[in-house]
Specification:
Elements: H1 14-50, E1 64-66, E2 69-71, H2 76-101, H3 105-122, H4 131-159, H5 165-192, H6 201-219, H7 221-227, H8 243-259, H9 263-293, H10 298-326, H11 328-348, H12 354-380, H13 388-396, H14 405-417, H15 420-425, H16 428-439, H17 443-449
Antiparallel strand pairs: 1-2
Helix pairs in contact: 1-4, 1-5, 1-6, 1-7, 1-9, 2-4, 2-8, 2-13, 2-14, 3-4, 3-6, 3-7, 4-13, 5-6, 5-10, 5-12, 9-12, 9-14, 9-16, 10-11, 10-12, 11-12, 11-16
Main location: membrane
InterPro entries: Atg22-like, ATG22/LtaA_families, MFS_dom, MFS_trans_sf
Protein name: UMF1 family MFS transporter
């Protein structure tokens, strides 16, 4: 395989423009529900169930019973995300194998997206002390989101060549932050004027959660229609008599056997497991950290997150431009270093210090989209052609909304210390380990070993 790029970057295609819209669609759920509203709301519901007579501002010291296991209400969200990811790690690798063999991968992608959106809409009915419904719907929505993203991410390899992927992936992420920010702005307005509309805070939160599910479902129609002509591809044909499921199991077994032949790809995946777990846990815990540890109101937290969303749009585009000059690998390494700074600042931020909280949001917005977008395009260069969904299923098991080790440690540390500060400072280890492992990846060698052309700038 030649070690030079063989495909020139093209003008933006209609498939690429359609592909961006799923970032726009699902980011509404990721931002409004999974990141900002549901973690503190579900914690409040769980606390009401465990400590119904708790005075305002007091810590609930009574545990819930989850399948006989004592769980602090403040840790319930993190354990739920952890459980979702463990299940996803098993389910998504089968989804990837099936998707590569499916004759209509876009239909499969849309089916998972709409199932997840339905679960997101049903979260409207979480109320009172019904935390169990919330946990079940979080699991369903998380698995469906991950399954849809396995196929969606793999389509990147089909619609963009090696010199376009950093740009296309970064623009998709930026588009996602713009979409998520737009709905969050509407929900922010609802939160501010909820009393004028005759709503209490709980009902305005539930309506906002419902809007995210409807947004996710509605805008998924655009990429479905724009990409529905794509057909499945399989690099290694398997006996047709095996069928989709049995053939997928055989293909999956082959994937794990082949992965040892791609040491750079394997090292990247392990590195991604660590630094992405750190990113996801910071994102997933930031709302509850701002409200429960720093003492800000839900309106303030919503406002800061809205600010972060629009900064992230420009941050993702900025990282894409930097990557075009120095390469995505170096850019992601610099981004990981900035994430370490974010955790340290969060740990020392004084309670009620709005200026520091907003400054922290600015830094998160700059680094947020770029590291994730470029990680996606980096990995796309390291997987063998024709098995994209199968390999992206391994990647997606560690992707946004499905991190598990970070949330598990975060929940455990909080349960032991009743302090979110000590929980968040532990995340530094994830960025240090992930950054070190990523620095050991030889991208040029890995791209060639996977049989792909090397981009002009690595």
């Amino acid at each position: 395989m030649s070690s030079v790029a063989v495909n020139a970057a093209r003008p933006e295609t209609k498939e690429q423009r359609a592909w961006y819209w799923y970032d726009w669609a699902n980011s509404a759920y990721v931002t409004t529900t999974a990141t900002v509203l549901l973690s503190p709301y579900l914690t409040t519901v769980a606390t009401a169930a465990a400590c119904p007579d708790l005075p305002d501002g007091a810590d609930c010291t009574t545990n819930l019973s989850v399948l006989g296991i004592p769980v602090s209400p403040g840790s319930l969200w993190f354990y739920t995300v952890t459980f979702t990811t463990i299940v996803s790690a098993i389910v998504l690798i089968f989804i990837g194998a099936i998707a590569d063999r499916s004759p209509r991968p876009t239909r499969l992608f849309a089916g998972f997206a709409w199932a997840g959106a339905l679960a997101a809409c049903l979260m409207f009915f979480i109320a009172g002390t019904n935390w169990q419904l919330g946990c079940v719907l979080v699991v369903i929505a998380g698995i469906c989101l991950g399954a849809s993203l396995v196929i969606y991410d793999s389509i990147l390899c089909r619609i963009a060549n090696e010199n376009e992927r950093d740009r296309v992936s970064s623009k998709g992420w930026a588009f996602g932050y713009l979409g998520g920010g737009t709905l969050l702005a509407l929900n922010f307005a609802l939160d501010i004027f909820h009393k004028d509309l005759g709503l209490d805070r709980a009902m305005s939160t539930r309506i906002s959660i419902l809007s995210a599910g409807l947004w996710w479902a509605g805008f998924t129609i655009i990429p479905y229609l724009g990409l529905r002509h794509l057909t499945g591809t399989v690099a290694t044909p398997i006996d047709k008599q095996a069928g989709v499921v049995r053939g997928s199991l055989e293909q999956l077994r082959s994937t794990f056997g082949d992965l040892r032949h791609y040491p750079q790809t394997l090292t990247f995946l392990v590195a991604y497991l660590f630094f992405n777990d750190g990113i996801q846990t910071v994102i997933g815990s930031s709302s509850i950290y701002g409200s429960k540890e720093l003492g800000f109101s839900e309106s303030t937290v919503l406002g800061v997150f809205l600010f972060v969303q629009f900064v992230a749009f420009f941050g993702a585009r900025l990282f894409g431009r930097v990557a075009a000059s120095i390469g995505a690998w170096r850019t992601v390494l610099y981004g990981i270093a900035l994430w370490t700074v974010v955790v340290v600042i969060a740990f020392v931020t004084p309670s009620k210090s709005l200026a520091v909280f907003v400054g922290l949001g600015l830094l998160i917005g700059i680094v947020l989209g770029g590291t994730q977008a470029l990680s996606r395009s980096l990995y796309s260069q390291l997987i063998p052609r024709g098995r994209e969904a199968e390999y992206f299923s391994l990647y997606q098991a560690m992707e946004r909304g499905t991190s598990w080790l970070g949330t598990l440690i975060f929940g455990l540390v909080y349960q032991l210390t009743l302090s979110y500060r000590w929980a968040i400072i532990c995340l530094i280890a994830f960025f240090v380990i992930g950054g070190y492992l990523l620095s050991r990846v030889d991208m040029r060698r890995g791209i060639i070993e996977a049989g792909n052309p090397v981009p002009a700038v690595v």
